[in-house]
Amino acid sequence: MNIRNAKPDEARQIARLIMTAMNYDCCRYFTGPDHTLQEFEDMMAQLVAGDCSQYSYRNTLVATDAAGQVAGISVSYDGARLHSLRRAFAEAAREAFGRDFSAMDDETQAGELYIDSLAVRPECRRRGVATALLRATIAKARRLQLPAVGLLVDQGNPAAERLYCSVGFGYANDAAWGGHPMRHLVINLVDGKHI
Questions:
Q1: What pLDDT shows up at residue 175?
Q2: Tens digit of pLDDT for each residue in 125-150?
Q3: What residue spans of the chain are helical by DSSP H?
Q4: Are the C-beta atoms of residues 186 and 148 closer than 8 Å to each other?
Q5: Mean pLDDT of the chain, nearest integer
Q6: Distance between CA 25 and CA 19 in Å, rounded?
């Protein structure tokens, strides 16, 4: 397995994995009842291929398998940039679905490398891909000299929470995103203690 920065021509594969990370109920929340998951995937692929969204390939690490195919992704960015990066998503959703998400609650903040999406293709799971991506993302935060790494995990997904805790994340507070109750988990890189 190799972990590297994503490429624009991998946008469709990355978009599909982002949708897996979001879960399809959240994707349908964004499309509304009059649009399809395929339309959401098309929108997300455009955002991934571009330079200015939170989902951009520029914010994405990919794990590739022996054949060079994308096995998993970790999309992360400096939480201080959330509002400027999210603007592209809000504009794309307004154009594609006629819905306004410009006033969504913040899911991160300054001082945190935020892991927006982490996903592994089903046939590549249980091989250490997610753990390797998490460790590479933590290393990215250190290179960027950010003091913490954070993420949200669905409260109904204890297996994912166990994975994050096994790498060193700890509970910070409760949150909500996309209509789901979430837990905010953090690693403090300055003193090693949870925030």
A1: 87
A2: 999 999 999 999 999 999 999 999 99
A3: 11-22, 24-31, 37-49, 82-97, 129-143, 158-167
A4: yes
A5: 93
A6: 10
3-state helix, strand, coil in the chain (%, to 5): 45, 25, 30
Q: How is residue 30 written in tokens?
A: 């964004």
**Nearest-angstrom CA–CA distance, 3 and 169:** 21
Return the pLDDT at 25: 86
How far apart CA 44 and CA 180 sit, in angstroms, is 20
In the block, residue with structure tokens 């994912």: 160
Q: How far apart are the first and last CA of the chain?
A: 32
* Secondary structure (3-state) at 156: coil
Per the CB < 8 A criterion, the answer to whether 72 and 42 are in contact is: no
Given strand 170-177, what is the order of strands in its sheet? 2-5, 60-64, 70-78, 113-120, 148-154, 180-188, 170-177
Spatial separation of the C-alpha atoms in residues 118 and 192, rounded to whole Å: 22
DSSP letters spanning 26-55: HHHHHH-TTS-HHHHHHHHHHHHHSSSSTT
Whole-Å CA distances, 138 to 131, 146, 147, 162, 177: 11, 10, 10, 17, 23
